[in-house]
């Protein structure tokens, strides 16, 4: 389990148009929002990533970098980026499922073609949304077992404003007896 204020796993993946993404060296003032998505086969992911794309500038204005990550191939990641009209959101691809597990993501098996007629990969990770500090510690994390009911990016932007204004620490770090 990932813990707030503790180091996250490393993440080093190719991107569509921005070279290699390396979390250890990703330049940002306040951190990076990493949105792990299921893949091209998921229509809910397309809608979610469209909203993420709309908020990239809002995050950048607050010193936060953004990236969408999946285990899809380069071709499928490109198709998703094209589908949502991504022009500022970075896309990383080829996430090894063992690495997805390190991040605490759930893994699902294929059920064949989805409602939009695209074949699911044999195995893929379910969604997760994380904010990682420049020191590569976990600030915020949300993991789902299904594609439904994900955190809203508009709420995350508002939460960042509050956290920045109040120097609000990451929460949920306690691991002692209860």
Q: How many distinct domains? A: 1
- CATH architect. name: 3-Layer(aba) Sandwich
Shape, per Cα inertia axes: globular
Share of residues in strands: 15-25%
Count of separate DSSP helical elements:
4
Distance between the termini: 17 Å
CATH class: Alpha Beta
Helix content: 25-40%
Q: Please compute the radius of gyration using only Cα atoms.
A: 16 Å
Instruction: Record the strand order, biggest sheet.
Output: 5-4-3-8-9
Which runs of at least 5 residues are low in confidence (pLDDT < 50)? none
Mean pLDDT figure: 97
Quote the CATH topology.
Answer: Glutaredoxin
The tally of strands reads 9
- The CATH superfamily title: Glutaredoxin
Structural class: alpha/beta
SSE run: EEEHEHEHEEEEH
**Major sheet size, sense and barrel closure:** 5 strands, mixed
Written overview of the protein:
By secondary structure, the protein is of the alpha/beta class. The chain has one domain (about 10-165): Glutaredoxin (3-Layer(aba) Sandwich), CATH 3.40.30.10. Helices cover about 30% and strands about 20% of the residues. It has four helices and nine strands; from the N terminus they run βββαβαβαββββα. It has a five-stranded mixed beta sheet. A two-stranded antiparallel ribbon has the order 1-2. A two-stranded antiparallel ribbon has the order 6-7. Strand 8 and strand 9 form a beta hairpin. It starts with 11 loop residues before the first strand and ends in a 12-residue tail after the last helix.
């Amino acid at each position: 389990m990932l813990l707030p204020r503790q180091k996250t796993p490393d993440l080093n993946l190719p991107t569509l148009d921005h070279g290699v993404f390396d979390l250890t060296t990703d330049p940002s003032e306040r951190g990076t929002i990493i949105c792990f998505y299921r893949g091209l086969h998921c229509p809910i992911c397309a809608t979610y990533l469209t909203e993420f794309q709309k908020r990239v500038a809002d995050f950048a204005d607050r010193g936060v970098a953004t990236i969408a990550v999946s285990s899809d191939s380069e071709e499928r990641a490109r198709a998703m980026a094209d589908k949502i009209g991504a022009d500022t959101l970075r896309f990383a691809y080829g996430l090894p499922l063992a690495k997805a597990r390190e991040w605490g993501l759930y893994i699902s098996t294929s059920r064949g073609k989805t409602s939009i007629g695209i074949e699911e990969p044999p195995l893929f990770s379910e969604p997760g949304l994380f904010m990682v500090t420049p020191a590569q510690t976990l600030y915020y994390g949300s993991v789902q077992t299904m594609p439904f009911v994900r955190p809203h990016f508009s709420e995350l932007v508002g939460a960042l404003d509050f956290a920045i204004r109040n120097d609000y620490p990451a929460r949920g770090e306690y691991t002692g007896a209860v």
